Give the backbone structure.
Amino acid sequence: DTAVSQTPKYLVTQMGNDKSIKCEQNLGHDTMYWYKQDSKKFLKIMFSYNNKELIINETVPNRFSPKSPDKAHLNLHINSLELGDSAVYFCASSSHYNEQFFGPGTRLTVL
Amino acid sequence: GENVEQHPSTLSVQEGDSAVIKCTYSDSASNYFPWYKQELGKGPQLIIDIRSNVGEKKDQRIAVTLNKTAKHFSLHITETQPEDSAVYFCAATIRTALIFGKGTTLSVSS
């Protein structure tokens, strides 16, 4: 009965590879987000989708591409991974402008 | 764009003491101010929030105050317990995405 789930929890990969992180929410929310938390714990918004439509795209390299197949899912695909992409990535969801619920995070390590 | 400053970055208190964390924001259009608690290896969890039409909100040992004129908001935790030890983040909304402060690591020693 997990509200916001992410897979995988840990992801270790080599520079230059392409990887995806999946996110699913079972709360019936209409808005989903991706946040990046760096090594200093700073949390920063990357993308926001509302009803499968991209509404926020912060200054993120175009190697990062979010995909929302339906309102309950928001996946993050990353091409040509770089060392600086190592971080914890959090998915979140909310109903309109209300409380955002966060997933458990995916720790990405690029070697 | 919105900028949220949070102080202090670390806070150590004795069990039973009070803890106060302060944040300021820059965009007067922001109207929702949540506080999140993040335990090691977990995602942030909302502990309390306040909207711009309210000056203060309390939930048991936790309270938040908002001064819209000064663009300040604060988290107050009373009677701290060891399980309150975590990283706390304030945030402000702009265009539905949360803009976070840099976090406060709270340590409660028994």
In short: The radius of gyration of chain A is 13 Å. The interface with chain B takes residues 4, 31, 33, 35, 40-45, 48, 50, 55-56, 58, 90, 92, 94, 96-97, 99-105 of chain A (CB under 8 Å).
